[in-house]
Structure formats: C-alpha cells, structure tokens
Amino acid sequence: MEKIELGIAPVVVLVLYLCLMIGIGLLGRAKRKEESLSDFYLGGSNFGFVVLFLTFFATQYSGNTLLGFAGTSYREGGTYIVSITFMVLAFTMITIYAPRLFKLARTFGYITPADYIYHRFGSHTLRIVCVLLFCWGLANYILEQLVAMGHAVEALSGGRITFMTGVLLLVFVMLVYESLGGMRSVAWTDVIQGTLLFGGCSVILYLLLTTEGGLVAATETIREQDPTKLQAPDGAGLRVWISRILLLGFGVSVYPHAIQRIFAARNLRTLRYSISGMTFMPFGTTLLAFLLGIIAINRFQNLSDFDSDKVTLYMIADIININVFTYWLGVMVFVALIAAIMSTSDSALLSIQSMITKDIYKPYLKRDASPQHLLKVGKLGGWVLMAVLIAFAWVSRQVESSIWLLIKLKLEFMVQISPVFLLGVYWRRLPAGAVLGGIFAGTAITLTLWVGAVVGLWETAMRSPLGISAGVWGLAVNYAICIAGGLLFPAAAPSKDTSAA
Amino acid sequence: MTEGPNTPPGEDPKHEYADERDMDRFWEVAQLDREPAKQWWYIPLILGLILVSIPWYAALYMKVAEGEGLIVFIFFDWEVMFLGLPIWIWIPIGCTLGLSILTSFAVLGFWRDGDSEAD
Questions:
Q1: Radius of gyration for the alpha carbons in chain B, expressed in angstroms and rounded
Q2: How far apart are CA A265 and CA A275, in angstroms?
Q3: Side-chain half-sphere of A226: how many Cα atoms within 13 Å?
Q4: What does pTM read for this prediction?
Q5: Separation of alpha carbons A261 and A51, rounded Å
Q6: Which residues of A touch B30 (CB under 8 A)?
Q7: For residues B28 and B23, what is the distance between their CA atoms, to the nearest angstrom?
Q8: A9-406 falls under which CATH superfamily?
Q9: What is the per-residue pLDDT across A437-449, written as a single tens digit (0 to 9) for each?
Q10: Which of A245, A248, A307, A399 has minimal Cβ neighbours within 10 Å of its Cβ?
Q11: Structural domain boundaries in chain A
Q12: ipTM of the prediction
C-alpha cells in the first residue's frame, strides 16, 4: 500500500495533544488529596458520571477496536458482526457481579481486584496466581497497544516519525502524566481521549455514508465478486462465533482496569448510569469498525493479514485529499486513534502497578512499607515494565503478526479468573481450593491446546479441537471443577480472622 | 472492623483493605436491596437473546436448501439483503440492541442499595 501523506500539520496537532496530556498530568498531581494508594490508584474513589463514563469508554475501546476489529471484519466478512455482541455481553456480565463487588469495595476499601480475591477466599496462592494471570493479560494488552501506537504515529506523520520513535515518544508522555497524577490524571486524560474517540467514530460514520455509494453499493459488489464474505456461518463458523461470545464476553468482563473503575465511582448512582451508557457504546464504535471493514473488502483486494489490520488507515488515506474539510477529518481520526491507544495502555499499566505493589510487594516482600514507598515502587516498576514491553514491540516489528493473535493470547488465560467473580460473590460454599484447581486446570488445558496447534495436531479456525477456542475448553473445565468442588467440599462456615495474614 | 471510603460518619473514611478477613461481615455486606442477577427474568432473557443472535437457523436453512434431507421448516432466505446487509446480520444487531436495552433496564431499575446511593 502507498504511504499516507498528511503533511506536517498532524505532527503539530500530535505535539499539542501530547503537551495537553502532560498538562493534565500536572493538574492531576496538583489536585491529589494525600499520598495514599487509594488516592493514586483510584483517584480517591470520587469520579462523577462524566469522568467515570468516559474513562470506562476510553479504556474499553482501544486502538484495536478501530484497527484490529476493522481488519478482522475485512478478512472474515459478515460473521464478525459477533464483535458487537461480545462487547455488549462483557458489560452485561459485569452487571452480574458488580453490584455486590462495588458495595464490598466501598465498605472494605479495596484498591485492586486481588483485595477482593484474598478477602473472599483467604488464599495467598490464589491471590498470587490471579495477579500473575492479570498481569500477563494486561502486559500482553499493552504490548498490543504499543504495536498499534507505532503504526499510528508512523502513518500520521507520513513516515517522518518512525515506528520506534513513535512508540518511545508516546510511552514517555504516558509514563510522565501517569506518574504525576495516577488514576486521577489517567481518568482526566480519558475524558479528552474518549471525546476524541467519539469524534473519530463520527468521521468513520461519515466515511461509511459517503464513500462511493456507501455500504449498499459496497455489499452489492461484494456479493458479485466474493459472496462468501456475506454468507452466514456454517457449522465451523458457528463454533467460532460461540467461542468468541464466551471468550470475550467472560474475559473482557474481568479486565482488572475495568474492575478498578467500578471501585473508583463516587457513588452507586454514577456507576449505574455509566454502566448503563456503556452497554450502548458498541453501536457507536465496534459496529462502525465492522462496517468499515466490510466496505474495505470492496475497496482493497487481497491485503495480507498484517496489512488488513490497517484498513482503517487506508480508508482515511482515501478521503484526505478530497478537500480541506475531509483532510482535517482524517487528521482527527488519527489523533483519536492515538488517544484510544494511549488511554487503554495507561489504564492497563496503572492496574499492573497497583497489583504489583499492593498484592505482591507489600504482603510478601515489605510488609511495613509506607504508602509513599509503595507509590515509588509502583512508578519505578511501571517504567521498567514499559522498557521491557518496548523491546518486545521492537521484536514484533521484525515479525509480521496479526493483532488478533495477540488478543487471543491474553484473553485465553485471563478469562480463567471469571469464576472468582461470577460465582465468588454469590456462592458461599465455593472454596478457594476448587477455584485454584479450576484456574490451574483451565490454564493448563488452554496452554496444552495452544501447543497442540503449534505442532499441528489440529488446524481448525480457533486452533483447537472441534474449532472451539482453547480458552473456552479451559473455561468449561474450570467452571465444572468449581461447581463440583463447591458441592463436594464446601467452604467452611464463616469465621472471624481479623489479623492481617 | 474499620470501614472503607465514604462510610458513615464516625468511621475511618481512609481505610484501605489490609488483609482483614471477617467473613460474617463480608456476607452481610454482600446483600443488596435489589440486584439485576436476582431478578428471575434477567439471566433467561440474556440467554434467549444470545441464542437468537447466533445465526444457527441460517445454517439450517442452507442445509435444507442444499437438499441434505433435514426435515425443518424454515420459510425465509436469511441472505436476502436489506439496507446493504443480509438479514442474518441484522438479526444479531437487533438482538444485541435488545441485550443493551435489557442490561440498561436491569441496571437502572433493579440495582438498588440504600447505603451506597449517596455521595
């Protein structure tokens, strides 16, 4: 594909945007109430509706939504409409456990999801395993965003800023504003980033309606030239569909950075309205990315998997030369894309920092650490982690891989934690041993099936037996063990143990 | 047991969880006035909408159309186009919109807890 040429103006816009982010970071630091973990990692649990909703929105929808989802729609056609279902279902699943978790968090002062896990199950092993799975998933999530970051900045600058320079620049700015103000800065930048994302999606809608006859003309051509892209799924396709609903519906609902936003709500009313609003957002984001991918089938033939993840960029490149108005619309989508990527990365990074300090470092390495010390360790850990992930992003640059493969790797494992929340808040009989056994079994099965795919034991669409995702097989066994464990070896009757373990 | 942020006056508002485990209190707090998952219709409706959103019926139609002898009455060609997309794609969109409305309705109408409502 030819290089996208936007001139120097987008670079200026990008620099202004990054300066604004640092300014918000400084403001977040100035507004801090105290040097505490709660203030730094949850913004003092005082976010009102606008901030909470936009931080949910900006965090949940990443660069992958605009790039990866459109790319998958391009490759797979109509069957990827399942993407709107699993994005809504993720929030539907949250409504199952969030009411109780919010009240518990508010009462007992949880800062991380693992606070709940230890409180509910009293198992150090379970807490550590869950934190490791969360961190694995989130680090993978950030890595995916770094790759998207590099592509976006390179495209926005017309190649003036290289992939790695773009990654380094954006990560540096992100670390600065996040280290300055923690969750408060992250959430406030999310307000700007979420608003930009709204703007970007509006431009996509404009593209859909105006580009060469729009959707109707595009699908008529597709039906003539490549009708399989609009055919309903067959048996194998249905198994992929069901796998995605289960994997992403359950997996996305237990993202730790989303759970921490539940903890950060000012009150129940703001949380209710924010979650309610979020259930409709896939129609303004995921659905548009899906439709963009469908139209791109007609516009760009035979893109590789790697190039297909850039169809959104190519569609924008097609409109920027029409007139000044469309040029600035194109610039807006690029900046929105970068905003979406940064907002997701900073939230995931902050969540990792909080879990490493609160759930690993303090209880097992330095029990008497002061909040100030913990905050320093968390910030330092964040910088080190990002350095490692940047190295991985550089490696990924050398090897072409589709963004979708990275997503699968993180969710397949993270989804195994879902019984902890979905069963744990309701079922008193559920013992820690059963949950731990379920997670171990689920993760081991998932890993085994992935290895089986690597050595060619099965070559189905989801790289696992019968074409059902490896994570779903693991999840089924996981829930079976949890339920059997709860029935056969119920947790002991509640007893008081008020000593810090 | 000390209480957490935004707790009633007189209790420590700055408490951060520090590995205390009073499970009687845990389960006492975990009770709400109303919650979506406890409404008898919530989970069945979610499952129903998800089930209809999966286009298994379109696959059945294709089988019948191909003459594989499956005795199922399906009166509709799900690949008929409407507003630029086949009908079988509009159905998941409609079901997902229904899921959004259901979730929103349940959250706004059936998630109540007196202690947590106020600022």
A1: 24
A2: 11
A3: 18
A4: 0.89
A5: 10
A6: 100, 103-104, 425
A7: 8
A8: Sodium/glucose cotransporter (1.20.1730.10)
A9: 999 999 999 988 8
A10: A399
A11: 9-406, 427-501
A12: 0.89
